[in-house]
From TrEMBL:
Residues 17-251 form the ER-bound oxygenase mpaB/mpaB'/Rubber oxygenase catalytic domain. This is ER-bound oxygenase mpaB/mpaB'/Rubber oxygenase catalytic domain-containing protein. It comes from the Bacteria. Residues 292-317 are annotated as: Disordered. It comes from Rhodococcus aetherivorans.
Amino acid sequence: MRSQSELVPLGPDSLTWKYFGGWRGMLFGPWAGSMQNMHPGLGAAVEEHSQFFDERWERLYRSLYPIYGVVFDGPRAPETAAQVRGYHDTIKGIDKKGRRYHALDPDTFYWAHATFFYSLVVSIEWFDGPLSLADKHRLFDEHVQWYRLYGVSMRPVPESWEDFLAYWDRMCREVLEDNKATRDVLDLSHLDRPPFLRWVPASVWTVLRPPMTRGFLWLTIGLYDPPVRALLGYTFSEREERLHRAIGRSIGLGEKLIPRRYRYHPRARAGWDRASGRIPADAPVVHTPDRNLPPAHLLDSPMHYTGAHENVSGGTR
């Protein structure tokens, strides 16, 4: 394992900084969550240890802060990565098929990272159009640099972009499973109003939710690789493929109407602000608002990021 002084965080000259950390990535939430949970070890961990589905929006919104921090926290990124790794220390057990799992098992931990990386590639092409092969190689190399910050085994990490594609295909065809944790992610039938729509009356949301959640599920199905669609029992016609691509491109074009700085999540935006001199280089990192914190009885759990309430060692208050 490298020492903290040898770990090199990504910076504003990277393609990852340019494309990662945007609000548009929220549209990939069900895809990323379901792809992660289809891994047997990760799915078991979520089913047996997570309370994600009891506080869906809060968990998603607060989790983005440390996830983005590993990319955008500059010299403090290795510390953020160590904290993220620490949230997984106690997540282990035996699944319903008698298989042992641990969230820090190298193959399991890397799969979660691989979904973040591949969702970045897929999202760029969905929103902005094709990436050059050179840019895909560059993003791959950056994802390795990013992953190294966690200080975990590099054994599962493919050697190249081409090797990664073979790894991804093998995972989709031979390793991923249709399980409860995956179906729970895709079941949006009880989804509460997102924070930015809390002004919508609950009675109105009850009417709006079914078509909105069906649309989200359809978008998610369109993002899956064909073997994953088959695994989950979905189909997608050529006409749907064309419509799906057109919607993604339209969203990407529409995003350009928003000032660039405000396309980014607050943790990512703060990284850009420090890099540009808009705020001091040693300005504190941005943490999640208290409204996104776990329930009071879980604030001391080592599995949960609790923002500014954490101490420097990564523990909770």
